[in-house]
Amino acid sequence: MSSVIKAIPDAVAPPRLEWRVASVVDARDETPRAKTLVLDVPQWPGHRAGQHVDVRLVAEDGYQGQRSYSIASPPEDETVTLTVERLADGEVSPYLVELRPGDGLELRGPIGGHFVWNVAVGGPLLLVGGGSGVVPLMAMLRHYARADAAARAAVPVRLLYSARTADDVFYRAELAQLADQPLVDVVFTFTRGAPPAWTGYRRRIDRAMVEAVSWSPAAAPRAYVCGPTSLVESVATLLVDLGHAASLVRTERFGPTG
Amino acid sequence: MQIEELRLDGNAVGGILREVFTHEMTNVLATCVGCGSKGRIAELLQYAHPMGVVLRCPTCDRAEVRIVRTSTFYCVDIAGVQLLMTPESVSPATGE
């Protein structure tokens, strides 16, 4: 028998992926168009920063709608937090943003083993998010913030966050707090209108911006890029063009179906 | 809506892949039959389709994985994959 192909180690075999009924323990407005849901999930097996869940809605006639939502909360939390943006023609999101504490929601997870990070993986950590693509990056930042001081000191972090306007920014107050940490930089760019006194970026992410925000390739940052397909593909291409190893650039594309 | 916005990636279908393969698959390395390039399942391109899942090679566009799910069975075509390799050593500590 070949020794090259190793068996999947039992120690990490995930439990069977089963639908569970989560209950909403808190629902709050994140932006005018997005809601953050805090969920209590029975027998939640725990998750890694960057993973997602599948959410399922079943209509009375049996018709099912299913979507994936990234987890915003860190592995350290006992609850699972999602942030859902209402999409005008969406099938699932308009329902989710109306949920209130006590409501139930069918989900399964956690899912994903590629777009994940933890402090033991190390850094520097470069996070690039567009729109709701910031959600899994927020789980990484929150996990980082919970790590002990020595672990944090070894990992400088930079977040480049592209939003339409300042009102569309998720987790604004918490990101401001994070940016006060010595090794954390948070950089915004607003693509459809910036506040009057704004002196920062006000355009789509481009080569000059990526070059200015990122470390040099010699520092070998681990990059996580999440957002709309066009943003993800252009940023990933830019990073590789700038000399970053493709193997250190991880991507997750978010779709417009809601 | 532009066609590129309908293009997602293997991350998005981690759930259905877990149904079929019973293991986390997004970090599994797949070698494309068409061009021989190797990439994580998460990095394959996925085109949203109501009938099921098609994962394509980002290098040569070959369909590597096709899954059709009905109410009673799955139909799985992995003829576009030459080799699937689980991550060689997965550390429970880091998952890397």
Shape of chain A: globular
Q: How many discrete structural domains of chain B?
A: 1
Low-confidence stretches of chain A: none
Helix content of chain A: 10-25%
CATH class of the largest domain in chain A: Alpha Beta
Q: Tell me which protein chains meet in the greatest interface and how many residues each side has.
A: A-B, 37 and 37 residues
User: In what range is the share of β-strand residues of chain B?
Assistant: 35-45%
**Rg value of chain B:** 13 Å
**How many strands, which pairing sense, and closed or not: the largest β-sheet of chain B?**
5 strands, antiparallel
Task: Indicate the multimeric state.
Answer: heterodimer
Q: What does this protein structure show overall?
A:
The complex is a heterodimer of chains A (258) and B (96). Chain A is an alpha/beta fold and 258 residues long. Chain A has two domains: 15-111, Beta Barrel (Elongation Factor Tu (Ef-tu), domain 3); 119-254, Rossmann fold, CATH 3.40.50. Helices cover 19% and strands 31% of the residues of chain A. The radius of gyration of chain A is 19 Å and the shape is globular. The mean pLDDT of chain A is 93. By secondary structure, chain B is mostly beta strands. Chain B has one domain (3-85). Helices cover 8% and strands 35% of the residues of chain B. Chain B has one helix at 14-21; strands at 7-9, 29-32, 38-40, 45-47, 52-56, 63-69, 74-77, 81-85. The longest helix of chain B is centred in the N-terminal third of the chain and has 8 residues, at 14-21.
